[in-house]
Records
---
Amino acid sequence: MLGVLKTKPFFTDKEKEQILAAIEAAEKRTSGEIRVHVESGSGKDPLARAREVFEKLGMTGTKLRNGVLIYLATKDRRFAIIGDQGIDRVVPENFWEETKERMGHFFKEGRFTDGVCHGISSVGELLAVHFPYQSDDLNELSDEISEEA
């Protein structure tokens, strides 16, 4: 009989709660949508893989095309942040790289949850400026952290 090898999740339940709380706090101020995706890695360029995951998660389906994905490839030790067309049109030129750099400082210290929460907060602030929360806003995408082995 073959056993099934289960991998340990990258984030603990408590850490996931912190990340979900950060997403919820950010999305209370914006019509934008923020998702986090974690996988061990794909061997691909993290930006290219993030674009694939973005599509797979249906993130191009938001009304204002203002979804943002934080993608982590844990085994590859790489990550990327991408935004949909609506947000890409309005972000400052180096916003994604600067946010990624600040997150990377946390990651280098082994503070992955803090780094992700910092990225979510930064993205949320920018989204709130360009896509403020409206009274009729709907949460168009799941806030759950998606994971692949």
---
Amino acid sequence: MDADYWHKKWSQNDIGFHQDDFNALMVKHFGGLDLRDGAHVFVPLCGKTRDIAWLLQEGFRVTGAELSQTAVEDLFADLSLTPVVTQDGALLRFATPELVVFVGDIFDVTQHALGAVDAIYDRAALVALPADVRARYAKHLIAVTEGATQFVLTFTYDQTTMNGPPFSITADMIVDLYDQHYALKLVDERAVPGKGLKGRTPATEVAWELLPF
């Protein structure tokens, strides 16, 4: 799975993964991170998620990273924001005072570009990545945010019933990726409504807190 896969998804508007409502587990539990007013939240692989609107409403500063420029342009349009667009190394930087989104490869996002990060909201990033990329992604997040607290949403389901993404991320996988850097807390879980993921398979959505030692 490469960049062309995701560019094709966005160009064809094949974005069944996009949710029109705020994520219920985020709304219920993100406050448990006990972040200060105006804290800086990083949202990797953000797409045009409505959850960014909620984070902004709650008074957070938000930085996102997204491969698709189409998604980012849609995001700012949906928020009625007009960004200033500049080149930042290999990335395009879309910026307003309250929201910055980098367009390009997540692995080109640097600590210098992000600045100090108070928390990461991984709403659909880890589950979008195939197994051979996840360890590199996890290490990169830790490096560019200096091990910031994470709120991570995953899905668990019988992977034999459907090809990802989203991929099934088990508790053991979370442990393998993160337990050397964080105390792991399974916060909540809920059944994916309706007929499950993509209307094809029953699944459970799981919320994790990853708290630095």
---
Amino acid sequence: MKVISLKTNPRLYSGNSFLLLGEWNTIDDINAVIDTGSDDYIVREIEKLYTGVGKNPVDKIILTHNHFDHMGGTAALKKAFNAKVYANIFSGDLVDYTLNDGDTIKLAEHEFYVIYSPGHSTDSLCLYCEKEQVLFSGDTTLQIRDNNSAYTLDYLETMQKLAMLKIKTIYPGHGSPITINPEEMIKMTCKNVSESKIIL
């Protein structure tokens, strides 16, 4: 699987946007975008890339949550490539399919597990590929350094799920990919959250 970090509009505050392609760009591979940034900037970025002979540049768009800096370019991307949009919550005619905890979805050449991760928003999702041991985390907070705050039970349960995964790389909603001890970071966060005040 190839993961391409797409350039987003430098004049706007924007979350990360990722294009996933199969390693060999075969006809069966599903070209997919995870999050679309704040506007239509990534449409032009994708048009510059080689995405496979005879293939639609983008087949699926997955939104990790419904905040403008992660989904602002969705309508333009959907129109440009006739892509289908997947998210946890239907938003008018923008979203074609809903994703729920435990669902699987094919992106590039692999199956991804959907992990519902409320906390940052009520519709937040993470996407995990067991084969590649990669996690796309959106804006889910993965690093908590102390146990002095309060957290919801939903958030604790999310961290407990993530702490069970084999992860080599995390692609977050903001910032650079995390490749140094991602599993240890999540396990420490899980420990700190479990020792904090839990709001039921």
